[in-house]
Each structure stands twice: as structure tokens, then as C-alpha cells.
Automatic annotation (TrEMBL):
It comes from Pseudooceanicola algae. The gene is rimO. InterPro entries: Elp3/MiaA/NifB-like_rSAM, Methylthiotransferase, Methylthiotransferase_N, Methylthiotransferase_N_sf, NA-bd_OB-fold, Ribosomal_uS12_MeSTrfase_RimO, rSAM, rSAM_horseshoe. The lineage of its organism: Bacteria, Pseudomonadati, Pseudomonadota, Alphaproteobacteria, Rhodobacterales. It is found in: Cytoplasm. Binds 2 [4Fe-4S] clusters. One cluster is coordinated with 3 cysteines and an exchangeable S-adenosyl-L-methionine. [4Fe-4S] cluster 2 binds at residues 169, 173, 176. This is Ribosomal protein uS12 methylthiotransferase RimO. It is an enzyme of class 2 (transferase). Its main location: cytoplasm.
Length: 459
């Protein structure tokens, strides 16, 4: 049993889970290190699914692998350093490393630090990764032995799965280089998304976590095309997914006006009453310097309207403090904005320069110690809000999904909590018969700063 710390980086996916599995004699095996966001984790799942279909085994450790694939992150300079460290560790432990992912868009950066890597490919370049694997470790399939589950390879627990609906982004935020690495918005056909979701639910998935770089913009690039009874628009897609009987959680939803059309679906129980919206800041001038929509006052009106239509909605967001030029008055405005918005779950970055980002060229960069001081004050404010909101849940009867069970307790999540980045609800009595994926009804009897405790309600 572990409690969720308040400083989890909101750009990180849960740690991938590798099954031990059995390896037939002579079967080639690949290891995988997956870094970065949930979108990268989905890429890792797709790569491993293709490799399993070709007869490769998946090794949970370096020693059992004929080569290792490192799926990198390039979102921040700290993430780039983490990726280089992971590549170095894989080289030291295994010696044969193929690099892919966002940092792969800068091959010279990687080979300059690690010239012995076997190959470097960019993000979602599945064919190039497979080609590199084939060169390094030729396949040796046995069609009578190597069986691939219909749902493919999953790196998350069996009861939840990420569902990526698009790639890329059309925004030009000055602090972000994701569009440079992953390209412009490219939406998947709606019928393909729904079919994947159906297969996941048929395989036992109880929760679908919808992800993209800009979920609200889904389908814009393909003019919301309709095909085989499914329309590529986030409202229609949410309705279609909600009909499958699993929990549906929406991530990375930009606050466009049409987002209000999702709220009735939440109020009706079709999708979870949860919105993950990257506001990034509250002050209009800072938002302008970020090249983001600067209508923070209207955003507060939207939040009020969402809560009016769906009182149980949980709002989570991420923010950047210490952005170049951020004055003390602008930061204080952000704290006041947060007070008024009363967001349920909040993550926060200290601004970092990223090579290639236009924000690096802005004047008036904030000293590191001041960024840290503002981050501390911001998180203190967010913690106070979280503590009060959770205290108000004591005595309520709610449904939770079980993630993990050990001798001490069952670690669960409410409908308002996404894996890893939000809080937990713990059941420490009568939990012995529970198992991951169970959805049970509990009465909340205790609240902390970020987590809840509850007891199972009798059927």
C-alpha cells in the first residue's frame, strides 16, 4: 500500500508492467524501456505487439534480452537527460540498444552521447523500429507456438488501458516542441477507435483512458468524417465509447466551447465526470506570452457552467510556474485564479528551457530559486484546496475501482482519480477477497491531503 505523493510529474505514464512469460528454446527476445507520457506508453505497446506477432519474446530484464528498445521522452530538458541516462544504463547492462520515441527526432543528440547505439528512430515510426530490430535480432517465429492475445500486448494492469485517438497537435505554444517532434494533428478514424475499445472491453478492460495531444480537436483534420456509423468528433466518440459499459476517462481536453457538450454525457453517467484540462496559467498576459488562449476569465465562467450541469465533476489541470517574464503580480493572480477555480486535482511544472522552443528566446527568465519558491507556494495552495474538497466527501457513498491488493489494504480509485497522477482510496478492512479490476461501493470515512479511506458497503 502506498499513498500518492503530491509532486508526481503529470507528464509521466505509469511504470510499464512486463509479464514474466515463458520463452521457447531459440526464441529471440527484446527488452523495452518506456519513458514519458501515456501516449509514448501506447507506442511501446504497439511496437511490442508487432514484435510478439513476429515471434519475439518480451524480456522483463536486461539479462534475458538479445537487444533493448528504449522509447525516449524529449518533452523537457530534464526528460532528455533522463532518456540519455536510460540509454546509458541499457548499454551498460545489455550492450545492444535501439532508440526510438520523441528524443529520436534528434538523432545526433543521442549518438553524440551514446555512439554505440544500434539505431535511432523518431516517434511513432513503427516500421523503422521493426527494421532496426530485424537487423539487430533476426526473427525466428514458430506459428504453432507463438500465440498473440487478441488484445495485443498491454503494459498497464489488465483492468485499464490507454486509448490513443490521435497523434500530433496544431497548437504553437512557445514552451512546447511536441508539434515539431510528433507533427500536426492526425486523427484516427472513429470506427477504428471504437473497434479497438470494443476489443479491450471484451478482453476484460474496465476503464478506458482516452488520450491524445489535444483530445478536444479530435477529428478536425479529417473534417469530422463519418464512417461505418461512427463520426470523428469528440462528443460523438465519447457517446460511442460510453455505450460499451466501461469507465471512460477523458484526458488532455482543451477548453474549447464545444467541451460543454460533453458535460451532459457525464451528468447522465455515460462517461466519467472527469476532465483533464491543461490550463497552464491563469493570467491573460502570461497566457499570451505562452501563445495560448488568453480568456482565463471566460474559463472561470465555463467551469461554473460545467459544475452547474454536473455537480460531481472532477477537474484536474497542469500549470507552469516561473515562465519567462512572470511577475510577482502575475503569479499572485494565478493563486487567486486557483482559489476561484477550486480545481480538484492539480499538477505543476517549474518552467524549463527546451532546445528548439521559442520560449527560450524570451526575455526576463526567472531564477531557479524563485521558480522553486513559487512552485512551493502554488502546491501549498493546491494542497489546501484538495484537502478541503476531500474532507467534504467523508460520509458519501461512491463507487471505486480496485488497482492493487496487498496484506494491508486494497488501493482503489474513485471516478475522479486517474492512475498514478491523482489520488487513491484505501480499503483496509474486509479487502481480502477483492482483486484488481473489481468495482465496489464504499462509504468514505476518512480524508487526507490527497487520498481517501473507506469501507465496503454491504450488498
Amino acid at each position: 500500500m502506498s499513498q500518492n505523493p503530491p509532486d508526481l510529474r503529470p507528464d509521466l505514464a505509469p511504470a510499464p508492467q512486463f509479464g514474466s512469460g515463458t520463452r521457447r528454446a531459440g526464441q529471440p527476445a527484446l527488452g523495452m524501456v518506456s519513458l514519458g507520457c501515456p501516449k509514448a506508453l501506447v507506442d511501446s505497446e504497439r511496437i511490442l505487439t508487432r514484435l510478439r506477432a513476429e515471434g519475439y519474446a518480451i524480456s522483463p530484464d536486461y539479462s534475458g534480452a538479445d537487444a533493448v528498445i528504449v522509447n525516449t521522452c524529449g518533452f523537457l530538458d530534464s526528460a532528455k537527460a533522463e532518456s540519455l541516462d536510460a540509454i546509458g544504463e541499457a548499454l551498460s547492462a545489455n550492450g545492444r540498444v535501439i532508440v526510438t520515441g520523441c528524443l529520436g527526432a534528434e538523432p545526433e543528440f543521442i549518438t553524440g552521447a551514446h555512439p554505440k547505439v544500434l539505431a535511432v528512430t523518431g516517434p511513432h515510426q513503427y516500421e523503422q523500429v521493426l527494421d532496426a530490430v530485424h537487423r539487430a535480432v533476426p526473427p525466428s517465429p514458430d506459428p504453432f507456438v507463438d500465440l498473440l492475445p487478441a488484445s495485443g500486448v498491454s503494459l498497464t494492469p489488465r483492468h485499464y488501458s490507454y486509448l490513443k485517438i490521435s497523434e500530433g497537435c496544431n497548437h504553437k505554444c512557445k514552451f512546447c516542441i511536441i508539434p515539431d517532434m510528433r507533427g500536426r494533428l492526425t486523427s484516427r478514424p472513429a470506427h477504428a477507435v471504437v473497434r479497438e475499445a470494443e476489443k479491450l472491453v471484451e478482453a476484460g478492460v474496465k476503464e478506458l483512458l482516452v488520450i491524445s495531444q489535444d483530445t478536444s480537436a479530435y477529428g478536425v483534420d479529417i473534417k469530422h468524417a463519418e464512417d461505418r456509423g461512427h463520426r470523428a468528433h469528440i462528443t460523438d466518440l465519447a457517446r460511442d465509447l460510453g455505450s460499451l459499459g466501461a469507465w471512460v476517462r477523458l484526458h488532455y481536453v482543451y477548453p474549447y466551447p464545444h467541451v460543454r457538450n460533453l458535460i451532459p454525457l457525464m451528468a447522465d453517467g455515460l462517461v466519467l465526470p472527469y476532465l483533464d484540462i491543461p490550463f497552464q496559467h491563469g493570467h491573460p498576459e502570461v497566457l499570451k506570452r505562452m501563445a495560448r488562449p488568453a480568456a482565463s476569465a471566460r474559463t472561470l465562467d465555463e467551469i461554473a457552467a460545467w459544475r452547474s450541469d454536473c455537480p460531481d465533476i472532477t477537474l484536474r489541470s497542469t500549470f507552469i510556474v516561473g515562465y519567462p517574464g512572470e511577475t510577482e503580480a502575475e503569479f499572485d493572480y494565478l493563486l487567486d485564479w486557483l482559489d476561484e477555480a477550486q480545481l480538484d486535482r492539480v499538477g505543476c511544472f517549474q518552467y524549463e528551457n527546451v532546445a528548439g522552443a521559442r520560449s527560450s528566446d524570451l526575455p526576463d527568465h526567472i531564477p531557479a530559486e524563485l521558480k522553486q519558491e513559487r512552485w512551493d507556494r502554488f502546491m501549498e495552495k493546491a494542497q489546501t484546496i484538495s484537502e478541503a474538497k476531500l474532507a467534504a466527501k467523508v460520509g458519501k457513498v461512491i463507487d471505486v475501482i480496485v488497482d492493487e491488493v496487498d496484506a494491508d489494504a486494497a488501493t482503489c480509485r474513485t471516478k475522479g482519480d486517474a492512475p498514478e497522477i491523482d489520488g487513491n482510496l484505501f480499503i483496509d478492512e474486509g479487502h481480502e477477497t477483492l482483486k484488481p479490476g473489481d468495482i465496489v461501493t464504499v462509504e468514505v470515512d476518512e480524508a487526507g491531503e490527497y487520498d481517501l479511506w473507506g469501507r465496503i458497503q454491504d450488498a
